Amino acid sequence: MAEDLAIITGNKETQYQSLIPQIKGLLEGETDLVANMANVVAALKEQFGWLWVGFYVVKNEELVLAPFQGPVACTRIKKGRGVCGSSWASSTTLIVPDVEKFPGHIACSSLSKSEIVVPVIRNNEVVAVLDVDDEKYDQFDITDKEYLEEIVNLINF
Ligand code: SME
Question: What sections of the chain are H helices per DSSP?
């Protein structure tokens, strides 16, 4: 595919529907996991302009920072800690409209106001999480949950 991403305007659903075939194109024929995570976070950041988009991968019982776009971030998160560690522990997507109201939220950037974390589950185990933060409150909803879950499932972890 062309290397330039086609960025479109419109509602969230329209944006995801434009992005998903392009993400499939970016992943096609590439088996390297880091390369694939890197292009997926870049594509999401380009289309949506969120503050921070990135993966943490499970390594030796911790989440370790993986490809991301946005401000520098904490490198290791323990199971059950913060939104990411809670998503890992519960194997569920967590939508946080106001991060200050989430007990134990880990503030990597003081600019972050809302967050969604999607676990990547393979063989019934969480192998990574996709974390997205934004500078505005209440930026994530069920539409993001559905499409982001679909997108992480396109990657061969
Ligand atoms: N806020 C996350 C930590 C990761 S950063 O936002 C990039 C959390 O509470 O798990």
Answer: 12-27, 33-48, 82-90, 142-152
Closest CA to 58 of 77, 71, 73, 39: 77
Answer whether 106 contacts ligand 1 (Cβ < 6 A).
yes
pTM, entire model: 0.96
Ligand 1 centroid to Cα of residue 84, in Å, is: 6
> Domains in the chain and their CATH numbers?
12-152 (3.30.450.40)
Residue of 50, 11, 87, 88 lying closest to 96 (CA atoms): 87
Q: What is the pLDDT of residues 99-119, one digit of tens each?
A: 999 999 999 889 999 999 999
Average pLDDT for the chain: 96
